[in-house]
Amino acid sequence: xxxxxxxxxxxxxxxxxxxxxxxxxxxxxxxxxxxxxxxxxxxxxxxxxxxxxxxxxxxxxxxxxxxxxxxxxxxxxxxxxxxxxxxxxxxxxxxxxxxxxxxxxxxxxxxxxxxxxxxxxxxxxxxxxxxxxxxxxxxxxxxxxxxxxxxxxxxxxxxxxxxxxxxxxxxxxxxxxxxxxxxxxxxxxxxxxxxxxxxxxxxxxxxxxxxxxxxxxxxxxxxxxxxxxxxxxxxxxxxxxxxxxxxxxxxxxxxxxxxxxxxxxxxxxxxxxxxxxxxxxxxxxxxxxxxxxxxxxxxxxxxxxxxxxxxxxxxxxxxxxxxxxxxxxxxxxxxxxxxxxxxxxxxxxxxxxxxxxxxxxxxxxxxxxxxxxxx
Length: 375
Ligand SMILES: Nc1ncnc2c1ncn2[C@@H]1O[C@H](COP(=O)(O)OP(=O)(O)O)[C@@H](O)[C@H]1O
Ligand SMILES: [Mg+2]
What we know:
Layout: H1 3-6, E1 9-15, H2 21-34, E2 41-47, E3 53-56, H3 58-67, E4 78-81, E5 90-95, E6 98-107, E7 110-113, H4 124-131, E8 135-136, H5 141-148, H6 150-159, E9 167-170, H7 172-177, H8 179-189, E10 193-197, E11 207-209, H9 215-223, E12 229-233, E13 237-245, E14 254-255, E15 259-263, H10 273-278, E16 283-286, H11 293-309, E17 315-323, E18 328-334, H12 344-351, H13 356-369
Parallel strand pairs: 1-2, 1-7, 7-8
Antiparallel strand pairs: 2-3, 4-5, 5-6, 9-12, 10-11, 10-12, 13-14, 13-15, 13-17, 15-16, 17-18
Helix pairs in contact: 2-3
């Protein structure tokens, strides 16, 4: 065997069908800039907003994002298909100009789904990869689906004994059949409340509601993203996050030093889309978070518990509120957290002694190591 054939081939998936399409492209550009090409062959696949897969590369993504930092991945070039089952891991390529011709593409050893949100981080792509007998980085089908759904995520956290804040779930059926009762349940939480699509991300569709008059508009906004909503009582506390990385084989997962998100201006009353990705001044991240040692330690343990509560694999970022009276309330886990060179997940690991390149390598190694099928 030649050396090059001993190099595992990693397929990076980016873009995708969710509202976090462009964030995913930025993540992919970051990973492509840091992955060890001596160790891995890399195949990059861009997924259009309407769900078609195309072969792409680092140069193309760089040019695309230089023109527009929040670009859409275009339907251009060779379209990619996965064979399902039978142990065949070679991509099939079809040129959009001649659909009758199928070309054999590279054989894939492991997929890195750098996708956020629905149709990426929610178990759907994970299911497809399971069907195709392909190993992949990160959480499996069930844990991805639970981690995407702010309703079932809380159910899993509660079952594991983690502290979650007061919340109500409003399904579309409940809203259509009896909006009055839904409003009453929300009212009982007390204002302010956070109205959220159950399955979105990057703060899309989330509104902080300070009074009953603002409620219906917030519900309408959240419904643009998801028919199912989660409404939460506003929690007063510091936002502390912790990065979790799986252990090898049956070893325990590891947690990074925690980091903190600090809102810097009053225009953004919470960590919304703008303060996450657009405004450079509205939020600051502090790594490590300035916490008493015992609190930091407790938070790291809770982060690992949260990862296990959703049956996590590979990685997750666990986000908490640290209240003034000392409670660590879990907000959410992200099973494919932002992963750009400036993202918290990466920064927290760097702060704990793991570089971006090492982190990428570690995630791919963990994925290559794990068996196919039920684990
Ligand atoms: N219950 C809450 N109390 C106070 N702030 C909240 C609450 N829920 C969300 N937030 C604020 O909104 C931001 C986004 O909410 P989050 O649930 O993390 O959604 P996403 O999955 O889009 O990141 C949080 O980072 C925090 O600033
Ligand atoms: Mg969040």
